[in-house]
Amino acid sequence: MSFEKDDQVVLNDEHSEFDGETGTVTQTMESMFGDVTYTVSFEDGQETGVPEDDLEAADADADEDDD
């Protein structure tokens, strides 16, 4: 699944300080080999060069819990 700018995603990377956190895709980058990586912005910072395999779509209901 590919992601677009402003998509809400969950990062699954045990080596990242943002593992398990929900963030927003702020940039997509495609290498000359056709691999796509993402920059994901979180409340406390950002992670760059994130491969698609480390991301999953965030639940749409997560933002609605503020009611």
From TrEMBL:
Biased composition annotated in UniProt, kind: Basic and acidic residues: 1-18
Q: Where is the composition biased (Acidic residues)?
A: 44-67
Instruction: Tell me the superkingdom of the source.
Output: Archaea
Location of region: Disordered: 1-22, 43-67
Task: Name the chain's protein.
Answer: DUF1918 domain-containing protein
Q: Which organism is it from?
A: Natrinema hispanicum
